[in-house]
Structures are given as C-alpha cells and as structure tokens.
Amino acid sequence: QIWGNVLSTKIVDLDNSVKMYPNPAEGNSLFLKTSETVTIQIFTILGKQILSQKIDESTSQMDITSLKSGIYLVKISSTKISITKKLIKK
After folding, report:
1. What is the pLDDT of residues 14-59, one digit of tens each?
2. Which residues make beta-bridge pairs with 75?
3. Which pTM value belongs to this model?
4. According to the 3-state scheme, what is the secondary structure of the chain?
5. Left (φ > 0), alpha (ψ -120 to 50) or beta: where does 47 sit?
C-alpha cells in the first residue's frame, strides 16, 4: 500500500482560541479573549439576533446591558469557522 501524503487540512480549534467570561454573567459586560478577529452574535433561544460586534485582541469587552435575565446563544465566527456557546445572564 502506498498512501504517500494524503491531503490534510489544518484543524482550527476556535473553541480554544476564544475565551468568553463570566458565564453566567451577572454584570453588564461580557469579556472575550481572542488571538484573532472574530464576530460575536448574540441570539435569543428562539433564534432572534439581538447583538453583533467584532472583537479582536484590542477590543475584549462587549456591552450586554440590553440583555434581560435568561439564556442566550453566542455565535463566535472567524473567517474559517464558527462555534456556538450558551450564555446565561442573571
């Protein structure tokens, strides 16, 4: 068997390159630590987008004052991949 060099792709683990805290959030700010520019979108549990903001190494805070207490979905997208995390606002 000759396999040679099989086509490989670099695995991008966005889940480990973006840190979101605090969760559950009790204040009016959500902090994100990232090494690349990402777009953060916050959705209600029913799928309605409420907030959207670009975050990079220099912008690490998102104002979530407008969010009421509840559960939200946070979509974190880079140019290569996107992930969704759950956010609880107290």
Report:
1. 566 788 999 999 999 999 988 888 999 999 999 999 999 999 888 8
2. 41, 84
3. 0.80
4. CCCCCCCCCCCCCHHHHEEEECCCECCCEEEEEECCCEEEEEEECCCCEEEEEEECCCCCEEECCCCCCEEEEEEEECCCCEEEEEEEEC
5. left
